[in-house]
Amino acid sequence: MTARTTGTRPDAGHAGPSGSGPGDGPVPAGPPRRAKVRKAATVLLFLAPSAVPLVLFTLVPMAGSLWVSLHEWNLIGAMRWTGLGNYAGILRDGDTWRALGNTTLYIAGYLPLVYVGGLGLAMALNRVTRGRDLFRAVYFLPVITSWVVVALIWKWLLNPSEGIVNKLLAVIGVEGPGWWTSDAWALPSVIIAAAWKDLGFVMVILLAGLQAVPAEALEAARVDGANAWQRFRHITLPLLSPSTAFVLVISCISGFQVFDQVYVMTSGGPAAAASEVMVERVYDLTFRYGRVGDASALSWVLFLVILLVTVVQVRLQRRWVNYG
Amino acid sequence: MSRGLKATAAFALAVLLAAGCAKGSATRESAPDGKSTIRYFTFSAAPDHLADLDKIIKAFEAANPSVTVTVETAPYADYFTKLQTAIAGNTAPDTFELNYESFVAYAASGALADLSGEAAKDDLSVYAAKSLDTFKRDGRQLALPASYSAVLLFYNKDLFDKAGLPHPTADWTWDQEMAAAKKLTGKGVYGDFQPVQFFEFYKALAQAGGAFFSDDGKRATFNSPQGVAAAKHLLDKPGTVMPTVAQIGGTPDYDTNLFKQGKLAMWHNGIWQFAGLKDVPFQWDVVVEPAPVKASAVFTNAVAVSPGAKNPAAAYKWLRFLTASDVTARTRIDSSWELPPLADAKAYAGYFDQGPPANRRAILDAVASATSPPVIVRQQEMQDTVTKALEQAAAGKTPIQKALDDAAAKVDELIKQA
Fold it and tell me: How many angstroms separate the CA atoms of B241 and B179, rounded?
């Protein structure tokens, strides 16, 4: 998306009177090298608003963390060079693998829930003709709400003894679980909260995709005698695949980076170990244990895991995504 | 061309501004006409004792007109996160508070300025010698003791009277405590509250006659039979005489509120709670904790100067005043704000004659049988390891002995790595 817009903008600029392309300068037939430099300067200038923050706040800190990951450092003392020792250490550490396992379980629970839920909502909204914008805004509201607020509310809803959920379950004669205080239910609690919050985002993307499905195609299928399920399965779903692919990649990345909700809901509690995820481990290593080198190394391992999974996803997309 | 120039200039300005912002936040307030400003970062003042700290600062500034002290506070749970981030970012406060458990790592990391030079010009005999020595490393004074506190058994007299039970005394045993707790539990009242965690465990271990480390400090020995007895003593309480972790549900200050509401008969907590219990509508008192072998947790806080402090002499002067001046001693005593670490007990004799609680002298019993927390450089990891092991055992996932064995092996590893 970004590549396309930045690709078209300069062309539009050339056409306009205020463009600063090679043809507009005071010296029309300047040496080609100078023109090239000027063009590069113009491009850089247009890139600056996003490139400068990217370099300052993403690339520089990333390079910094790579440097730190090769040292032992507790924030308050001097750094000591350890080479790849931190990487070897965290890969041998059982806590790393437990955190990676918990993160994977989280994604395995979260992804289907948020996709199916978001798709269901999007299809329902796609049929609504009046007040669609209102519904869309309402479902999108949790997406832009602070994670800390959402997590605190869910923590309260799912409170084992005082929470509304368990009180309602008691009414129908079911004894509610310990939710975020129990090892078995801690991750599901977080998944429920996360899916609820992110549903709106997935819905908006898929709704846009659904609205792009041509009515003629569905109509033609209907005329050919396809029933609702067949139309969904063979027309809607394939035409929705680019949106689906986008949602899966984005959600998978954010799933690996899950932190706030887990930290607020289970950290320091009785089920903390059963729900510790990768970024939480990075946080604890840094701020709780003063092992910034190990934390940085773990961040890079997580980065590589995400990169690998994303590359595999994008590769696999060629097989099932219909870019028409 | 001029358009390009303008844009370049604008871009350069933006970069300069960004750089300026970054620098601005890192530089300290400038000190006009010879005045210097000392930043002091503390966890023990907020929220109950900010006015008291202010009183001490006013007195200090009156005596030292060229120095201004500014206070920054953070709750204990966030304090060290903020402090270490500030140190790493070169924005460390000039002076800051530390508990002994963190002092060890800070001293080992070179994050504390050596106060020996200033101390040599000064008479430090006002401090209790033992407190002063606690914060020395290799003959260098790296911090000044600021306050100490003890953990006692708080009890609600009204609940004991209503149940017709005798009040706890200094010679109570664990069994007596448990028997009373069982009788007091019921009708919305819990008999006892003692969290299942590291700090309660190391103390219970000492009370059972065990040692946390081997004599040379190189090995964890808390998985001994005494360790198992201590763990059993702690694990017997939740679900019988005290709420379970699930019932507490991570609610902050759950136990404090329970006691304040008169729904808790016995409570293991520190003397820092005195000020907050001033106005409760029932009678209460304290006594040294019941135990087979008398042992009480005593905690010491200190204050230190950051190596980057602009005016170390003024910083030292402030800390000296904050820890050992008459104003401080009086303020601490008047407001029940922990105790000053002074050699002359007369300086704070008045503290013991006021109430509630009436039996403040229990603090002296606690100090007489003081057991300091075990401390290593990788302190937080050790604490979490022990707490997790106890939780595993409490949840029935691991037998007590095995949980302690595993934890001891991990702690051995932590000692080695530091």
Answer: 10
Contact residues on chain B for A20, CB-CB shorter than 8 A: 3-4
**A:302-321 residues touching chain B, CB 8 A cutoff:** none
- Whole-model pTM: value is 0.83
Give the architecture (CATH level 2) of B150-298+367-417: 3-Layer(aba) Sandwich (3.40)
Q: Could you give the 3-state DSSP secondary structure of residue B202? A: helix
Instruction: Look at residue A299 and give its three-state secondary structure.
Output: helix
Distance CA A213, CA A208 (A): 9
CB contact under 8 A, B88 and A76: yes
> B246 and A183: CB-CB below 8 Å?
no
- Start and end residues for every CATH 3.40.190.10 domain found in chain B: 35-149+299-353, 150-298+367-417
For residue A288, the chain B residue with the least C-alpha distance is B380
Q: Count H helices, E strands: chain A?
A: 15, 2
ipTM of the complex: 0.82
Calculate the CA dihedral of residues A137, A143, A149, A155 and round it to 10 degrees: 110
Nearest residue of B to residue A283 by CA position? Answer: B81
The domain B35-149+299-353: what is its CATH number?
3.40.190.10
Question: Is B84 within 8 Å of A270 when comparing Cβ atoms?
Answer: no
For residues B287 and B153, the answer to whether their CB atoms sit within 8 Å is yes
Collect all residues of chain A within an 8 Å Cβ-Cβ radius of residue B388.
273
Please indicate if any CB of chain B lies within 8 Å of the CB of A76: yes
| Cβ(A259)–Cβ(A283) below 8 Å | yes
For residues B185 and B215, the answer to whether their CB atoms sit within 8 Å is no
User: pLDDT means per 10 residues in chain A (324 residues)?
Assistant: 39 42 48 87 93 95 96 93 95 94 97 96 89 89 94 91 90 90 92 95 94 92 92 93 95 95 87 91 93 96 97 92 78
Q: Following DSSP, what letter does each residue of A98-152 receive, concatenated?
A: HHHHHHHHHHHHHHHHHHHHHHHHHHHHHH--SSHHHHHHHHHGGGGS-HHHHHH
- Test B391 with A182 for CB contact under 8 angstroms: no
8-state DSSP, A214: -
Contact A155 B378 (CB under 8 A): no
Give the whole-angstrom CA distance, residue B306 versus residue B41. Answer: 11
CATH 1.10.3720.10 domain range(s) in chain A: 87-320
Q: Would you tell me which CATH number, out of the four given (3.30.40.10, 1.10.10.10, 1.10.3720.10, 3.40.190.10), belongs to the domain A87-320?
A: 1.10.3720.10
* Burial class for A132, CB neighbours closer than 10 Å (0-12, 13-18, 19+): middle
Cα-Cα end-to-end distance for chain A: 16
Q: Is A17 on the interface with B (CB under 8 A)?
A: no
